[in-house]
Amino acid sequence: MTELSEINTEARRAWMGLLARAPEDALMALWQKYATPPRFEWLRRPEIGGVMVRGRAGATGTPFNLGEMTVTRCSVVLEDGTVGHGYVQGRSKPKSEAAALIDALMQTAAADEVRAQVIAPLSERVQADHTRRAAKAAATKVEFFTLVRGED
Fold first, then answer.
1. Would you say 100 and 75 are in contact if contact means Cβ atoms under 8 Å apart?
2. Mind listing the pLDDT tens digit for each residue in 7-27?
3. Domain ranges across the chain
């Protein structure tokens, strides 16, 4: 079992963020293709709840409550004692379970295999979706300019 302190916190934050934001159909398709889903026990079965989303005006202003968002979370422990957590937007218990198992596996010797079969293709899909949306938005961009008129 890899100690959590040995894992790069930024890398873990990145893969957990990717799992949380990924489209459910893409994540579940890649997870179902994964060769060896691990045996595990539940620490916390998937449960649906809500969280308050906070924002800041101009990213620097005083925080304010923007509204609530539904999330599903769960926690698992693998046979070797590695713990994984899954927090996903929405009401998908299977997606939160898959995210927790992937998080746990990414902390073990199976990390390279999981990265190649699940994380990398999922990252490419999310990036392609982002690029497509950005191109679509850029096509509708309107630029305004003003002409300076002389004072008479």
1. yes
2. 689 999 999 999 999 999 999
3. 4-136
